[in-house]
Amino acid sequence: MIFSNAIALWLAVAIPIVVYAYFIRRKTRERVVSSNFLWREVLARAATPTRGFRARNIVSLLLAATIATALVLAAARPSAKNAVDDSPLVVVLDNSASMSALEPNGESRFQRAKKTLAQIVANKSDARDVLLMTCGGAPNVQCGFTREHSALRGVVERLTPTSEPAAALETLRRALFFQRLRGDDARILFVSDGAFQDRDDVLALIRENPALAFLQIGESRDNVALLACEPRRSPTGDQSFETFVDVANFSENDVQVNVEFTLNGDLLDVLPLNLQSRERVRKIVKNESLDGGEFVARLAFNDAESDQSDGPNADLEDDVVVTTLAPFPTVNVLLYGDVDQYVATALQAQPNATVSVVDAIPAALDENDLLVIVGDAPDALPSGKIAFVSPASDSAIFTLGDEIEETFVEDAQDSGLTRYANLSGRTLRGVRELRPAEGYVATVYAKTPEAPVALEIAPSDPRDVSRFYVLNFATADASVALQTLFPIVFTNLVGAARGVQDQDWNAIRSRSVAESDLRVDPALFAGLGNEVEALARVKRPIWSALAIVALILTLAEFYLYCRRRVE
Amino acid sequence: MFDSQTLKKFEYLSLASSKQFAGQTSGERRNAKLGGGVEFADYRNYAFGDDVRNLDWNVYARFEALYIKRFQEEGDIPVYFFLDVSTSMGENETAAKFDYAKKVVGALGYVSLMRFDSVAVFTFADDVGETFPLSRGKEKFLPLAEFLETLRPRRAATKISHSLQNALKKIVKPGLAVIVSDCFDANGLDDSIERLLARRFEPLVLQIYAPEEARPNETGDFELIDAETGERSKVTIDESTIRRYQKRFDAFLAKTRESCVRRGARYYSTLIDVPFENFLLEVARDVKVGR
To answer: For A154, A524, B92, B118, which has the most beta carbons within 10 A of its beta carbon?
Structure first.
């Protein structure tokens, strides 16, 4: 028997009180009468033998105790587990990142969940179909409906945790779809540690669907997580780099931790942090250079015991961020035309560029060559990467068009400090449109004062205008001085020429808060059940039957009480 | 027992008797014997040896026949009180019942003594107990009252018939037999009345009972203890049980009355919450009937 509200069993302490109250009630008052021969005659018709009278008293007492017991059991909402369930079962296993967290015994939550699944598979009847889904990252059907124990065992054994957040809500909705396909008696079992996003929605879904059972895996744990790490070019416009880190302490105690940054195994920097309980900090570390290589950010605890399974850092997977930074090739900048002093100086300041002034446009350009034409665009251009600086508003190739209104940030990713966007294929607010002259199909957008230079050239251009990099400083509303603007512009220009521009290499998010916060609030899962055995077997609520029994017994007891007459 | 005003009231009462008894001494009641009284009763033929002073000479002058005038003798009546002193008369809720019964005996005894009747008191329960001997004269009321004051209920059952049988052995002259009891005798009064009538007594039954005995009003589980036998009965009393008991008690009273009336015995019953003087007036209301 399973009790959904086992705490109600404490009401059993009231049973002796009921029995005691019964004896109080049964205590007869002594009354001396002149003669009781009249009473005997009055009650003679209803009188019963003494043995029967006493037996009724005992039965009445037993009934009272049984009534109290039945009511206590009914309040505990018991369910019978007396039969093996043959109904189809959809098992949704959470293999998200949080399931990698270690339990106090050194076992991970995912290992524990797999053991539970193996137990359910072993206990299931031969006629029961089971569908197995995982929800790490996205809904994934690992195994369709099957009743083969060996197949299910094999799938369970092969399951591995992911580093993705749990798509619990979406997966459960699909599981409900599968469940409804197989009829009303089909049931869903969601095995998870409860660390998932949209938790309120998921719990509401579970509570709304009686066929959906939730099995909570794991105990509440403390954890410190490196939620995000972002090595990037400094947004201030100079040639330096920086690394943004986001660290949170989900433990109940203060923690001292260092964030170590290494590039290709060489220690770049160490950021010491003293995190108070439930504190989350965001820091930026300046880096002189972040040229290509393997960049690693790692949490290092001062206390060696912190990394142990019973320490304040249950999940070791969210302590490290690894990214590969693209190498920076050297660009040969060929400067042609009416070379401005500022332009030349800005280009020469680029650390990864060699600048040379040419008198004539080369006939051909190498892969790493960037031809910078200051002034109007000539009619004949070589193949390769070419940038135009301050083209005339009406040249042979481009025409300065209208200001572009629509926003360019569509896939904005909040890095905590800046809004970072993939500029490829995006339009920029405040930018003038450079319309290609007739014969050029491409649409070209030029820079904005507020953002790095971004260019878009339609790939359908028959003249392969993707090699053109147009820098238009003629925007009337530019609020940034050219002296300040040039380095930024040319840094981006060189970066674009080196092929770095389109890479999303410096935006790294390690974990979501929901996955790294391993604390379990029992109140959230109250009433959802936590019994493995119950999920493999039928749970038949019997509290209503107990209540009916109590009612019948009450009537019987009342009848017996009324039948008591005389001894 | 009584104050002087109450006794004054009793002096106007008389305990009626429908029968005539042969008294020992002169009194205010008609005697069964004819003889030396002042009230003419009958004639009879003169017989040798009759007192010639009783010849009616007027009749002789008219019919020349000798007739003797006979006169009704007046004398006393022996009044025997049989007072129930069983436990049922004086336990707990019925304690007032015994006092009430003693008052009845005392008052009727006083009335009888005032009428120059002889009064004797026999107490009984399962057998005859203390006895107040047959006495006559007003001056005997004080001893009678003292005797009644000393009486206490005995822890014994009510056996009226057996007690009367033994008491009658001690009585020579028949008279008025006043039984003062609650009559809680499972054997009834039939046998007792028969015994008294057989001995030419005039039975007068005064049944006294308490309101709680007639109309119990408490419900619940009780263990009833018979005051006389100590027998215990566990009873669950509810409203319907009380109604049945009341019917049964009414039937018990009716049966007792019927046992008396059918045999010519007078019967009175009263609750002890009825004023004592009222009951006494009811008993003595037909005072002239017997005179």
So the answer is: B118
Distance CA B97, CA A485 (A): 126
Least confident segment among A17-26, A90-99, A433-442, A540-549: A433-442
Q: What is the CATH number of domain A224-326+507-516?
A: 2.60.40.10
Nearest residue on chain A to B86, judged by CA atoms? A34
Reported ipTM: the value is 0.71
Task: Supply angle C-alpha A346, A347, A353, rounded to 5.
Answer: 140
User: Domain map of chain A by residue range?
Assistant: 2-28+36-81+544-563, 89-219, 224-326+507-516, 331-497
The closest CB to that of B235, out of A26, A35, A565, belongs to A565
Quote the radius of gyration of chain A (alpha carbons, Å): 38
Nearest chain B residue (CA) to A47: B235
Are B234 and A567 in contact (CB < 8 Å)? yes
Instruction: Assess if residue B8 is contained within a domain.
Output: no
How far from B206 is each of A369, A481, B203, B270, CA to CA, in Å? 146, 136, 10, 8
- Cβ-Cβ contacts under 8 Å between A and B: the total is 90
| B82 shares its domain with B67 | no
Is domain A89-219 classified as CATH 3.40.50.300?
no
B5 found inside a domain: no
The predicted model scores a pTM of: 0.41
pLDDT (tens digit, 9 = 90+) per residue, A203-258? Answer: 888 888 888 888 888 888 888 888 888 787 665 544 567 788 888 888 888 888 88
